[in-house]
């Protein structure tokens, strides 16, 4: 890769923290290319951050360095982590954030990061530890020179669905900006397009039609579909399903024939 690519994912929103990280990276390697995945992960929501990283990493060129910072444990005993996989490098806190993506690609080496800025703070390792580590990696520094090897790191599993007696039991794993609700289910056994199914949510039971895509229903209709990531999604056409039905990450949903 002529110009090394560094991709950033955080829960920093519009605050200045992202700019500070970019400034550190470019001060160390002015040739680095920096791509923003998103900085709108809900604050301290490690599960959502991990889901987004896993969903997006494979679409980047091999050799991309991912810096993910959703770090409610910053300044505590949690380790700063560097994972080298078959195709990528992942930098971030050892709180499960990196694990689903890195493990899917196949972890080859793991290190507790031992580099950082001289003025290391207790509250901003994104700037003081993770950004410098990524910048050094982008210069071609070997991962083994940036820390000490570790044999274990914190795992974080993306929930899976189960089917019992024709009922799909799943969890909400992600809510996108349109309010579309990704469940952990990957299919609707026995259902055909056009079928109307009952979805049990914490706010009650709703009826949703199983469709191929949003345009197969009218505005305001509740639908179920398999989305671009392969998850069974609950949506309201031209609306917001999460808001309408009070759903958030981690909630249980049950889907059955009405």
UniProtKB/TrEMBL annotation:
Domain S-adenosyl-l-methionine hydroxide adenosyltransferase N-terminal residue range list: 6-146
Keywords annotated in UniProt: S-adenosyl-L-methionine
Origin superkingdom: Archaea
Cross-referenced SUPFAM superfamilies: Bacterial fluorinating enzyme, C-terminal domain, Bacterial fluorinating enzyme, N-terminal domain
Pfam family, one: SAM_HAT_N
Domain S-adenosyl-l-methionine hydroxide adenosyltransferase C-terminal: 170-254
Coiled-coil zones: none
Record's keyword annotation contains Manganese: no
Similarity section: Belongs to the SAM hydrolase / SAM-dependent halogenase family.
Name of the protein this chain belongs to: Uncharacterized protein
Record organism: Pyrobaculum neutrophilum (strain DSM 2338 / JCM 9278 / NBRC 100436 / V24Sta) (Thermoproteus neutrophilus)
């Amino acid at each position: 890769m002529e110009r090394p690519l560094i991709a950033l994912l955080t829960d920093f929103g519009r605050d200045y923290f992202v700019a500070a990280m970019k400034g550190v990276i470019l001060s160390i390697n002015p040739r680095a290319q920096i791509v923003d995945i998103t900085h709108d992960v809900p604050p301290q929501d490690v599960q959502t951050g991990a889901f987004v990283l896993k969903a997006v990493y494979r679409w980047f060129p091999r050799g991309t360095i991912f810096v993910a910072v959703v770090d409610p444990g910053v300044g505590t005993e949690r380790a700063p982590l560097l994972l080298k996989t078959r195709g990528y490098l992942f930098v971030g806190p050892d709180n499960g954030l990196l694990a689903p993506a890195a493990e899917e690609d196949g972890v080859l080496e793991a290190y507790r990061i031992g580099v950082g800025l001289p003025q290391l703070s207790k509250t901003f390792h994104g700037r003081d530890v993770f950004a410098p580590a990524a910048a050094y990696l982008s210069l071609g520094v070997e991962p083994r020179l940036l820390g000490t090897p570790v044999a274990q790191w914190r795992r974080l599993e993306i929930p899976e669905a189960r089917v019992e007696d024709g009922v799909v039991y799943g969890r909400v794993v992600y809510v996108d900006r349109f309010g579309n609700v990704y469940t952990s289910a990957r299919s609707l056994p026995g259902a055909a397009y056009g079928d109307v199914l009952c979805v049990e949510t914490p706010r009650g039971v709703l009826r949703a039609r199983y469709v191929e895509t949003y345009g197969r229903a009218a505005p305001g209709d509740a639908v179920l579909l398999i989305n671009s990531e392969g998850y069974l999604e609950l949506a309201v056409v031209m609306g917001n399903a999460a808001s309408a039905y009070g759903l958030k990450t981690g909630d249980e949903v049950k889907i059955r024939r009405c």
